[in-house]
Specification:
The protein is an alpha/beta fold. 50% of the residues lie in helices and 15% in strands. The chain contains 11 helices and 8 strands.
Amino acid sequence: MPVTSVRGVDINYEVLGERGPWVVLQPGGRRALSGVKSLGEKLAEAGCRVVVYDRRNCGASGVSFDGGRSENEIWAADLQALLGQLDALPAYIGGSSSGCRLALLMALLHPADVRGLLLWRVTGGAYAARRLVENYYTQFIDAARRGGMEEVCRSEHFAEVIAANPANRIRLMSLDPQRFIGIMEEWRRAFNNGAQHPVIGLSPAELRSLTMPACIIPGNDRVHPRVPGQVAHRLMPNSEYHEVLTEDRLDLDVALEDWNAKEGLLAAIFVDFLRRHERRG
């Protein structure tokens, strides 16, 4: 699988398909590209060129902790640079959960580079805000305080990152624990600053400013309830709304098995959206 240096960090990626409009997909959480590769293959079979990749600090990509701004802004800058290297801009930007927030931020910061948005499992609500800030930041801050970077390396996420790319252990162990904690605290503050919005990460005014075409499919669990997707659709002026799962699973934080079973329908909705907008222009 190709690896390229993006803003000083090795990024693991793959391009699926040989012709057609460029699409990039990002999974939820800190999951690796395998979380969206199957969906990407379906879009590629329908005539798209699809980029799937591991964000920094995820999958087999390199780890790097730069402070001074939010983690999502760093990811958005990486994505723009990666797509620029591939001569893939402008592109349709797609994402689920954290990948959805990244797609929205990319559209806000770099609208000229975004032909349209493919958004599913939109996050929002007080429960999601509490749960996600713990998963993304607090658990790693607590690990570093307990046992330094060795304890961070033993955490489930970073143990997977090291297994996928053993050089990441050396990079992690070279970090001063207090610096790591400080950066994670900064990223946690940035996340919390946008957590009160109906769609986590963007204000209603920012969502209204996104005028590119968007296909929005809401979630159905506690972290991805139906309402944030509905709110995004009402606020984004050129969006369309579809439902893939009509049964709410509010006993679950993440209903991934349900979504995996409906991947064919999800792909069909996105392919139809892409074909219609490609015909228009």
